[in-house]
Amino acid sequence: MVLFGDAYKFEPNGLFINVNKEADAIYKKDCDTLYFTSLSRITSILKKIGDLYREATDEETQNFLNSEFICCTDSFNSSCVKTSNRKLIAMAMDTLKGYNESDQKRIFKYIAKYSNIYDSAHNIFNIGNEDQLKYLLWGIEQRFYTTAVGNEKRTANSVITLS
Predict the structure, then answer these.
(1) With 60 as the cut, is the pLDDT of residue 20 above it?
(2) How does pLDDT run across 76-90, given as a tens digit for each residue?
């Protein structure tokens, strides 16, 4: 059976072919890259892809900002948090679930070495804008590093775990 339009639903052993005016996704084998026009359309085929692009909800963002280790300043609140940081919040929340109290203290010291947002006297991060939040989130994901030659402090844009 041939279906035209967006009414298609993927069935692993189905006998349907869906034809749209435009492709939902294009895979370029030479550079191993998948381009897609709509996350909602591609998730019916690639179930886990949504996890990579998940944004924290308003409630999750508010709960994160209400964490005992965060002090929002300068009227900064969840409505100020943009998409890129909402994606980082979603990842950071998952990461924090795996930290025990000792790990959390070590991460806070690690973040303090790379930014000035940590108030060690009160064990809190002062967050008053998107950049300060980004530094906290990068720190939770351990994206800071210092070069071996030159002792230059840097951030990693992406991370791949080496075995």
Answers:
(1) yes
(2) 999 999 999 999 999
Q: Does one domain contain both 102 and 33?
A: no
pLDDT in tens, 104-141: 999 999 999 999 999 989 999 999 999 999 999 999 99
Of 13, 35, 8, the residue nearest 24 (C-alpha): 35
d(CA 27, CA 35): 6
Instruction: Give pTM, 2 decimals.
Output: 0.71
Domain that holds residue 35: 2-52
32: left (phi over 0), alpha (psi -120 to 50) or beta: left
Strand partners, 72: 127
Alpha carbon distance 29, 8 (integer Å): 25
77 and 93, same domain (yes or no)? yes
Dihedral of CA 119/71/152/145: which sign? positive
User: Which of residues 52 and 100 earns the better pLDDT score?
Assistant: 100
> How is residue 147 written in tokens?
């070069």
Number of domains forming the structure of the chain: 2
Q: How far is CA 4 from CA 14, 16, 20, 93, in A?
A: 16, 10, 6, 40
Q: Contacts for 61-64 with beta carbons within 8 Å, 24 or more apart? A: 61/86, 61/89, 64/89, 64/92, 64/93
